[in-house]
């Protein structure tokens, strides 16, 4: 049954779910800073004032620094996808902080280019891990009414961190930036200490008492009536049945046949398709190559200012998405987002095509507006919601592994798009590149409308028979 959005009067009921989600997303905000660090720092590394003892980095070295993060992304996704069900979300959260802290330490003490390669691989491992562990954790603890909003906080904190990284990287020294942000990891570790693991993890380990206390904590359960106690007990029983099956049969091990069931196949295909759309919409590449695109448009704005503007617009879009996702639904936002990205991409493509033969420098605001429109609408759905929808459309039994598979595909796609995007810009021009990206999101809107189910307020407890 679909449930409406939560009222402010019900915040007390969900306060621990909200606070826990904010706490775990501190590491996501910090990781966003790690991603945002590169854009404003790369020109410094390429200049004569490079802080490295080896001097300015070459274009080839800069290319590897940019793309090698994807190697770490695959490693992080695979490793933590296997770990999260075995050791639980809480310990996984602690472990993913290790490569993240090491990333900042390498930046602080690194002096040569290979140190930056190592740092970016560590950054990728953290990124692959957080996009597996945090969505799984939030989906497990969140009530149906606010699950979409809490899931959207993942990308909101990520984009907020990127914006913070853009600003700090532009105006702080190379050595001061990491020394400030590394403190967030300490705050994260302290707050996570006070959170119990998810009820689902304790149930898998047959720790019924811990599961009961965990569910009470995250539901802020303070029964005052017999009906409330009965509803709570029924929910706990449903969780146990969902994970272990009925009590007259033993829990079954995960096999490849579980992934051949209709719900699992459908969910995995949708998840990978949304990850493809997330990357090949061109939005991630647009953020990485904002300076080049603004220069191609004839804009005379300062590149650092352009980067901050793009980061601000992206964050604003995800804030709107978090507000709307449990009010109008995931599918509506995804379709609207795809249409908006298509319009913005085509507008930028047309402007770029006309600027080849005409001097349109005085109209460069059109290019800025088109790019900003595409990124803003993309931040409504194409960028944040694939991670939300992915954890909602998969049967519980295969969720952790399936999320890992879909999430592992993301850095591979990111590597591909970051590699081919500059080549497309040269061979096809900006107009050809944006036309292709706009076409992809146009097809994406149609596919989402017909094949992606609405999960707003739906119960996540998919039975074994249904899967």
UniProtKB/TrEMBL annotation:
Compartment(s): Cell membrane
Membrane topology, from the record: Multi-pass membrane protein
Residue span, Major facilitator superfamily (MFS) profile domain: 18-456
Record-linked Pfam families: Sugar_tr
Signal sequence residues: none
PROSITE patterns named in the record: MFS (PS50850), SUGAR_TRANSPORT_1 (PS00216)
Transmembrane regions listed in the UniProt entry: 18-42, 62-84, 91-112, 118-138, 150-171, 177-196, 263-287, 307-325, 332-353, 365-388, 400-421, 433-452
Coiled coil (UniProt feature): 222-249
Cellular component aspect of the GO annotation: plasma membrane
Keyword entries, A-Z: Cell membrane, Coiled coil, Membrane, Sugar transport, Transmembrane, Transmembrane helix, Transport
Primary site of residence: membrane
A GO molecular function held by the record: sugar transmembrane transporter activity
PANTHER family assigned to the protein according to its UniProt record, in alphabetical order: AT22075P-RELATED, PTHR48021
Protein name, entry field: Major facilitator superfamily (MFS) profile domain-containing protein
């Amino acid at each position: 049954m679909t449930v409406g959005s939560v009222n402010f009067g019900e915040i007390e009921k969900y306060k621990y779910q909200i606070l826990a989600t904010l706490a775990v997303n501190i590491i996501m905000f910090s990781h966003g800073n790690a991603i945002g660090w590169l854009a404003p720092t790369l020109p410094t590394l390429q200049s004569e004032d490079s802080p490295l003892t080896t001097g300015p980095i070459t274009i080839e070295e800069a290319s590897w620094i940019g793309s090698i993060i994807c190697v770490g992304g695959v490693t992080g996704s695979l490793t933590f996808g296997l770990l999260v069900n075995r050791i639980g979300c809480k310990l996984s959260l602690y472990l993913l902080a290790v490569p993240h802290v090491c990333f900042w330490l390498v930046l602080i003490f690194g002096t040569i280019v290979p140190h930056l390669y190592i740092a970016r691989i560590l950054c990728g491992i953290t990124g692959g891990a957080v996009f597996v562990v945090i969505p799984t954790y939030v989906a497990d603890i969140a009530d149906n009414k606010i699950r979409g909003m809490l899931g959207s906080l993942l990308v909101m904190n990520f984009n907020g961190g990127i914006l913070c990284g853009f600003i700090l990287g532009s105006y702080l020294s190379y050595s001061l930036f990491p020394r400030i942000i590394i403190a967030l990891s300490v705050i994260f570790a302290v707050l996570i200490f006070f959170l119990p693991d998810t009820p689902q993890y304790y149930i898998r380990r047959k720790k019924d008492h811990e599961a009961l206390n965990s569910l009470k904590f995250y539901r802020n359960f303070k029964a005052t009536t017999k009906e409330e106690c009965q509803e709570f007990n029924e929910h706990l029983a449903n969780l146990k049945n969902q994970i272990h099956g009925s009590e007259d049969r033993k829990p079954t091990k995960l096999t490849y046949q579980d992934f051949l069931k209709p719900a699992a196949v459908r969910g995995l295909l949708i998840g990978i398709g949304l990850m493809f759309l997330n990357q090949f919409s061109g939005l991630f590449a647009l953020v990485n190559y904002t300076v080049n695109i603004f220069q191609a448009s004839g804009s005379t704005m300062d590149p650092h200012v352009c980067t901050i503007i793009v980061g601000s617009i992206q964050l604003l879009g995800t804030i709107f998405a978090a507000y709307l996702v449990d009010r109008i639904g995931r599918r509506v936002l995804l379709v609207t987002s795809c249409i908006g990205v298509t319009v913005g991409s085509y507008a930028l493509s047309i402007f770029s095509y006309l600027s080849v033969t005409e001097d349109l420098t005085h109209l460069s605001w059109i290019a800025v507006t088109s790019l900003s429109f595409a990124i803003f609408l993309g931040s409504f759905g194409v960028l944040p919601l694939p991670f939300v929808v992915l954890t909602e459309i998969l049967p519980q039994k295969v969720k952790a592994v399936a999320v890992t598979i879909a999430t592992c595909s993301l850095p591979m796609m990111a590597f591909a798009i970051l590699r081919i995007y500059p080549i497309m810009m040269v061979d096809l021009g900006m107009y050809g590149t944006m036309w292709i990206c706009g076409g992809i999101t146009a097809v994406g809107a149609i596919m989402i409308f017909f094949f992606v189910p609405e999960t707003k307020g739906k119960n996540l407890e998919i039975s074994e028979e249904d899967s």
